[in-house]
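Lab notebook, bench 4. Still working through the backlog of constructs that have no structural model yet. Next entry is a single chain of 340 residues. Request: give me the C-alpha coordinates for it.
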Amino acid sequence: MRKAVILFNLGGPDSLDAVQPFLFNLFNDPAIISLPKIFRYPLAKFISKKRAPIAKAIYAEMGGKSPILEETKKQANAIERTLKQEKDEYKCFIVMRCWNPRATEVVKKVKKYNPQKIILLPLYPQYSNATSGSSIKEWTDICKKENLNTETKTICCYPTEENFILSYASLIREKINLNKLSETILIFSAHGLPENKIKQGDPYQWQVENTVDHLVRKLSITNLNYILSYQSRVGPLKWIGPSTETVIKEEAKKQKIIIVVPVAFVSEHSETLVELDIEYKKLAVENGSKDYVRVPAVTVNKDFINSLKSSILLASSGNQFTSSIKCPDKFKKCPRFQNL
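Model written out:
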Protein backbone atom coordinates (compact mmCIF):
# COMPACT_ATOMS: atom_id res chain seq x y z
CA MET A 1 0.00 0.00 0.00
CA ARG A 2 1.29 3.46 -0.94
CA LYS A 3 1.13 6.04 1.85
CA ALA A 4 1.93 9.73 1.61
CA VAL A 5 3.32 11.50 4.69
CA ILE A 6 2.78 15.25 4.59
CA LEU A 7 5.33 17.17 6.66
CA PHE A 8 4.08 20.60 7.69
CA ASN A 9 6.31 23.46 8.74
CA LEU A 10 6.13 27.25 8.74
CA GLY A 11 8.72 27.82 6.05
CA GLY A 12 11.08 30.73 5.61
CA PRO A 13 12.27 33.12 2.91
CA ASP A 14 14.71 31.66 0.39
CA SER A 15 16.22 35.09 -0.39
CA LEU A 16 16.23 38.57 1.12
CA ASP A 17 13.72 39.66 -1.55
CA ALA A 18 11.34 37.00 -0.25
CA VAL A 19 11.35 38.32 3.33
CA GLN A 20 8.51 40.82 2.97
CA PRO A 21 6.13 38.53 1.02
CA PHE A 22 6.90 35.75 3.52
CA LEU A 23 5.94 38.06 6.39
CA PHE A 24 2.77 39.05 4.55
CA ASN A 25 1.77 35.40 4.20
CA LEU A 26 2.42 34.92 7.91
CA PHE A 27 0.34 37.87 9.12
CA ASN A 28 -2.40 37.32 6.53
CA ASP A 29 -3.14 33.91 8.08
CA PRO A 30 -6.49 34.15 9.93
CA ALA A 31 -5.06 31.80 12.58
CA ILE A 32 -2.48 34.50 13.36
CA ILE A 33 -4.62 37.62 13.00
CA SER A 34 -8.23 36.69 13.52
CA LEU A 35 -9.87 39.58 11.69
CA PRO A 36 -12.14 39.55 8.62
CA LYS A 37 -10.12 39.49 5.40
CA ILE A 38 -11.11 43.05 4.49
CA PHE A 39 -9.23 44.26 7.61
CA ARG A 40 -6.60 41.54 7.90
CA TYR A 41 -5.19 41.99 4.37
CA PRO A 42 -4.22 45.70 4.67
CA LEU A 43 -2.98 45.14 8.22
CA ALA A 44 -0.76 42.27 7.03
CA LYS A 45 0.57 44.54 4.27
CA PHE A 46 1.38 47.24 6.82
CA ILE A 47 3.04 44.91 9.37
CA SER A 48 5.09 43.03 6.77
CA LYS A 49 6.41 46.27 5.26
CA LYS A 50 7.25 47.67 8.69
CA ARG A 51 9.00 44.52 9.92
CA ALA A 52 10.81 43.67 6.67
CA PRO A 53 14.03 45.67 7.39
CA ILE A 54 14.43 44.05 10.84
CA ALA A 55 13.70 40.59 9.45
CA LYS A 56 16.10 41.10 6.52
CA ALA A 57 18.89 41.86 8.98
CA ILE A 58 18.08 38.62 10.81
CA TYR A 59 18.15 36.53 7.63
CA ALA A 60 21.32 38.28 6.49
CA GLU A 61 22.94 36.77 9.61
CA MET A 62 22.04 33.34 8.20
CA GLY A 63 23.48 33.90 4.75
CA GLY A 64 20.49 35.64 3.22
CA LYS A 65 17.87 32.92 3.62
CA SER A 66 16.22 30.53 6.06
CA PRO A 67 17.70 27.02 6.35
CA ILE A 68 14.36 25.50 7.31
CA LEU A 69 13.54 23.91 3.94
CA GLU A 70 16.92 22.16 3.77
CA GLU A 71 16.48 21.02 7.38
CA THR A 72 13.03 19.66 6.60
CA LYS A 73 14.30 17.83 3.50
CA LYS A 74 16.90 16.08 5.66
CA GLN A 75 14.16 15.06 8.08
CA ALA A 76 11.98 13.80 5.21
CA ASN A 77 14.86 11.70 3.84
CA ALA A 78 15.62 10.29 7.30
CA ILE A 79 11.96 9.37 7.84
CA GLU A 80 11.77 7.61 4.46
CA ARG A 81 14.94 5.65 5.21
CA THR A 82 13.67 4.44 8.58
CA LEU A 83 10.34 3.39 7.03
CA LYS A 84 11.90 1.40 4.17
CA GLN A 85 11.82 -1.78 6.26
CA GLU A 86 8.02 -1.58 6.54
CA LYS A 87 5.80 -3.60 4.18
CA ASP A 88 3.99 -0.47 2.95
CA GLU A 89 5.56 2.19 0.76
CA TYR A 90 5.95 5.60 2.39
CA LYS A 91 6.81 8.82 0.59
CA CYS A 92 7.26 12.18 2.33
CA PHE A 93 6.01 15.47 0.92
CA ILE A 94 6.91 18.86 2.41
CA VAL A 95 4.38 21.68 2.78
CA MET A 96 5.34 25.11 4.10
CA ARG A 97 2.57 27.34 5.42
CA CYS A 98 4.07 30.74 4.56
CA TRP A 99 6.53 30.05 1.76
CA ASN A 100 7.45 27.44 -0.82
CA PRO A 101 6.58 24.64 -1.34
CA ARG A 102 2.95 25.63 -0.73
CA ALA A 103 0.04 23.27 -0.18
CA THR A 104 -1.58 24.00 -3.56
CA GLU A 105 1.34 22.61 -5.57
CA VAL A 106 2.00 19.71 -3.18
CA VAL A 107 -1.63 18.51 -3.31
CA LYS A 108 -1.18 18.09 -7.09
CA LYS A 109 2.00 16.07 -6.56
CA VAL A 110 0.25 13.85 -4.03
CA LYS A 111 -2.62 13.26 -6.47
CA LYS A 112 -0.08 12.16 -9.07
CA TYR A 113 1.55 9.81 -6.54
CA ASN A 114 -1.96 8.39 -5.94
CA PRO A 115 -1.54 7.01 -2.39
CA GLN A 116 -4.09 4.75 -0.70
CA LYS A 117 -3.65 6.69 2.55
CA ILE A 118 -2.39 10.13 3.60
CA ILE A 119 -0.82 10.89 6.99
CA LEU A 120 -0.51 14.51 8.08
CA LEU A 121 2.52 15.21 10.29
CA PRO A 122 3.12 18.76 11.57
CA LEU A 123 6.73 19.35 12.60
CA TYR A 124 5.48 21.09 15.72
CA PRO A 125 5.63 18.72 18.73
CA GLN A 126 3.04 20.75 20.65
CA TYR A 127 -0.27 21.59 18.98
CA SER A 128 -1.40 25.16 18.46
CA ASN A 129 -4.24 26.36 16.30
CA ALA A 130 -1.85 29.03 14.98
CA THR A 131 0.71 26.50 13.69
CA SER A 132 -0.38 22.87 13.21
CA GLY A 133 -4.06 23.82 13.08
CA SER A 134 -3.52 26.42 10.38
CA SER A 135 -1.50 24.03 8.19
CA ILE A 136 -3.98 21.18 8.60
CA LYS A 137 -6.92 23.44 7.75
CA GLU A 138 -5.23 24.85 4.66
CA TRP A 139 -4.38 21.33 3.45
CA THR A 140 -7.93 20.09 4.05
CA ASP A 141 -9.49 23.07 2.25
CA ILE A 142 -7.25 22.64 -0.81
CA CYS A 143 -7.86 18.88 -0.93
CA LYS A 144 -11.60 19.59 -1.14
CA LYS A 145 -11.06 22.02 -4.04
CA GLU A 146 -8.79 19.57 -5.86
CA ASN A 147 -11.05 16.55 -5.18
CA LEU A 148 -8.33 14.68 -3.32
CA ASN A 149 -10.52 12.39 -1.23
CA THR A 150 -7.94 9.85 -0.06
CA GLU A 151 -8.37 8.50 3.47
CA THR A 152 -6.42 10.84 5.74
CA LYS A 153 -5.07 10.42 9.27
CA THR A 154 -3.58 13.25 11.34
CA ILE A 155 -0.77 13.24 13.88
CA CYS A 156 -1.85 16.36 15.71
CA CYS A 157 0.97 16.44 18.28
CA TYR A 158 3.57 14.38 20.13
CA PRO A 159 4.65 16.54 23.12
CA THR A 160 5.30 13.57 25.43
CA GLU A 161 6.16 10.83 22.93
CA GLU A 162 8.83 8.62 24.49
CA ASN A 163 11.51 8.93 21.80
CA PHE A 164 10.90 12.66 21.32
CA ILE A 165 11.56 13.17 25.05
CA LEU A 166 14.59 10.86 24.84
CA SER A 167 16.04 12.82 21.91
CA TYR A 168 16.11 16.11 23.81
CA ALA A 169 17.16 14.48 27.09
CA SER A 170 20.23 13.01 25.35
CA LEU A 171 21.18 16.36 23.82
CA ILE A 172 20.79 18.13 27.18
CA ARG A 173 22.98 15.57 28.97
CA GLU A 174 25.77 16.28 26.45
CA LYS A 175 25.76 19.97 27.40
CA ILE A 176 25.26 19.93 31.18
CA ASN A 177 28.19 19.65 33.62
CA LEU A 178 26.93 17.80 36.71
CA ASN A 179 29.94 19.05 38.69
CA LYS A 180 28.69 22.62 38.24
CA LEU A 181 25.00 21.92 38.78
CA SER A 182 24.57 24.47 41.57
CA GLU A 183 25.82 27.21 39.22
CA THR A 184 23.65 26.11 36.30
CA ILE A 185 20.15 27.08 35.16
CA LEU A 186 18.40 25.13 32.42
CA ILE A 187 16.08 27.40 30.43
CA PHE A 188 13.48 25.62 28.30
CA SER A 189 12.52 28.15 25.64
CA ALA A 190 9.41 27.76 23.48
CA HIS A 191 7.91 30.07 20.90
CA GLY A 192 5.43 32.39 22.57
CA LEU A 193 1.74 32.87 21.87
CA PRO A 194 -0.66 35.71 22.71
CA GLU A 195 -2.45 35.12 26.00
CA ASN A 196 -5.86 35.53 24.37
CA LYS A 197 -5.20 32.46 22.20
CA ILE A 198 -4.74 30.35 25.33
CA LYS A 199 -7.91 31.81 26.87
CA GLN A 200 -9.78 30.77 23.71
CA GLY A 201 -8.86 27.14 24.39
CA ASP A 202 -5.53 26.62 22.62
CA PRO A 203 -3.69 23.68 24.30
CA TYR A 204 -0.18 24.83 23.29
CA GLN A 205 1.05 26.15 26.65
CA TRP A 206 -0.35 23.13 28.53
CA GLN A 207 1.38 20.77 26.09
CA VAL A 208 4.71 22.62 26.33
CA GLU A 209 4.51 22.36 30.13
CA ASN A 210 3.92 18.62 29.78
CA THR A 211 6.95 18.30 27.49
CA VAL A 212 9.13 20.01 30.09
CA ASP A 213 7.71 17.89 32.93
CA HIS A 214 8.46 14.68 31.02
CA LEU A 215 11.94 15.91 30.07
CA VAL A 216 12.86 16.77 33.65
CA ARG A 217 11.67 13.36 34.82
CA LYS A 218 13.65 11.68 32.03
CA LEU A 219 16.82 13.61 32.96
CA SER A 220 16.38 12.51 36.58
CA ILE A 221 18.99 14.98 37.85
CA THR A 222 18.69 15.76 41.57
CA ASN A 223 18.57 19.50 42.40
CA LEU A 224 18.26 20.52 38.75
CA ASN A 225 17.44 24.22 38.43
CA TYR A 226 15.19 24.88 35.46
CA ILE A 227 12.54 27.24 34.17
CA LEU A 228 10.18 27.34 31.18
CA SER A 229 10.02 30.60 29.23
CA TYR A 230 8.72 31.91 25.89
CA GLN A 231 10.48 33.81 23.11
CA SER A 232 9.80 35.72 19.88
CA ARG A 233 7.09 38.10 21.12
CA VAL A 234 5.77 40.53 18.48
CA GLY A 235 3.00 43.13 18.54
CA PRO A 236 1.19 44.95 21.34
CA LEU A 237 -0.83 42.03 22.75
CA LYS A 238 0.02 40.43 26.08
CA TRP A 239 1.88 37.14 25.53
CA ILE A 240 2.32 34.11 27.73
CA GLY A 241 5.39 34.30 29.94
CA PRO A 242 7.83 34.63 31.42
CA SER A 243 9.79 35.87 28.43
CA THR A 244 13.07 34.11 27.63
CA GLU A 245 14.78 37.48 27.28
CA THR A 246 13.78 38.52 30.81
CA VAL A 247 14.73 35.17 32.33
CA ILE A 248 18.17 35.19 30.67
CA LYS A 249 18.87 38.70 31.92
CA GLU A 250 17.84 37.82 35.50
CA GLU A 251 19.83 34.57 35.60
CA ALA A 252 22.90 36.16 34.00
CA LYS A 253 22.94 38.78 36.75
CA LYS A 254 23.22 35.90 39.24
CA GLN A 255 26.35 34.83 37.30
CA LYS A 256 24.76 31.53 36.31
CA ILE A 257 25.85 29.08 33.65
CA ILE A 258 22.88 29.30 31.27
CA ILE A 259 21.86 26.30 29.16
CA VAL A 260 19.03 27.04 26.72
CA VAL A 261 16.86 24.26 25.28
CA PRO A 262 14.65 25.12 22.23
CA VAL A 263 11.98 22.75 23.51
CA ALA A 264 9.29 23.52 20.91
CA PHE A 265 11.55 23.63 17.84
CA VAL A 266 12.67 20.55 15.91
CA SER A 267 14.86 22.31 13.33
CA GLU A 268 17.30 25.20 13.19
CA HIS A 269 15.98 28.52 11.90
CA SER A 270 15.91 32.22 12.78
CA GLU A 271 14.58 31.73 16.31
CA THR A 272 17.46 29.41 17.19
CA LEU A 273 20.35 30.54 15.01
CA VAL A 274 19.87 34.29 15.52
CA GLU A 275 17.55 34.92 18.46
CA LEU A 276 19.02 32.27 20.77
CA ASP A 277 22.57 31.97 19.43
CA ILE A 278 23.35 35.65 18.82
CA GLU A 279 20.90 38.03 20.48
CA TYR A 280 20.25 36.16 23.73
CA LYS A 281 23.88 35.06 24.06
CA LYS A 282 24.94 38.69 23.84
CA LEU A 283 22.35 39.56 26.48
CA ALA A 284 23.67 36.83 28.78
CA VAL A 285 27.30 37.89 28.41
CA GLU A 286 26.51 41.59 28.94
CA ASN A 287 24.65 40.77 32.18
CA GLY A 288 27.38 38.63 33.72
CA SER A 289 26.60 35.02 32.85
CA LYS A 290 29.50 32.63 33.55
CA ASP A 291 28.72 30.74 30.35
CA TYR A 292 25.96 30.48 27.76
CA VAL A 293 25.27 27.15 26.08
CA ARG A 294 22.55 26.34 23.59
CA VAL A 295 21.31 22.77 23.14
CA PRO A 296 20.80 22.06 19.40
CA ALA A 297 17.40 21.31 17.89
CA VAL A 298 16.67 17.61 17.44
CA THR A 299 16.63 17.85 13.59
CA VAL A 300 17.67 14.34 12.42
CA ASN A 301 18.58 12.96 15.84
CA LYS A 302 18.06 9.19 15.65
CA ASP A 303 15.66 9.12 18.61
CA PHE A 304 13.61 11.96 17.16
CA ILE A 305 13.29 10.28 13.77
CA ASN A 306 12.24 7.09 15.57
CA SER A 307 9.65 9.16 17.41
CA LEU A 308 8.19 10.37 14.12
CA LYS A 309 8.31 6.84 12.71
CA SER A 310 6.36 5.51 15.71
CA SER A 311 3.74 8.23 15.33
CA ILE A 312 3.40 7.56 11.59
CA LEU A 313 2.91 3.82 12.10
CA LEU A 314 0.43 4.42 14.90
CA ALA A 315 -1.55 6.91 12.81
CA SER A 316 -1.47 4.63 9.79
CA SER A 317 -3.69 2.05 11.49
CA GLY A 318 -5.24 4.21 14.21
CA ASN A 319 -7.99 6.75 14.70
CA GLN A 320 -8.49 10.00 12.79
CA PHE A 321 -6.24 11.91 15.20
CA THR A 322 -3.08 10.54 16.82
CA SER A 323 -1.43 12.17 19.82
CA SER A 324 0.86 11.19 22.68
CA ILE A 325 -1.39 13.12 25.07
CA LYS A 326 -5.10 13.73 25.58
CA CYS A 327 -6.06 17.36 26.06
CA PRO A 328 -8.58 18.16 28.80
CA ASP A 329 -12.02 19.18 27.53
CA LYS A 330 -11.41 22.86 28.35
CA PHE A 331 -9.01 23.12 25.39
CA LYS A 332 -11.62 23.63 22.70
CA LYS A 333 -9.01 24.37 20.03
CA CYS A 334 -7.71 20.80 20.28
CA PRO A 335 -8.40 19.02 16.95
CA ARG A 336 -10.63 16.51 18.75
CA PHE A 337 -13.18 19.30 19.18
CA GLN A 338 -12.79 20.92 15.76
CA ASN A 339 -13.86 19.97 12.27
CA LEU A 340 -10.45 20.40 10.65
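Notes after review: The chain has a mean pLDDT of 95. The two ends are 25 Å apart (CA to CA). Flag for follow-up if needed.
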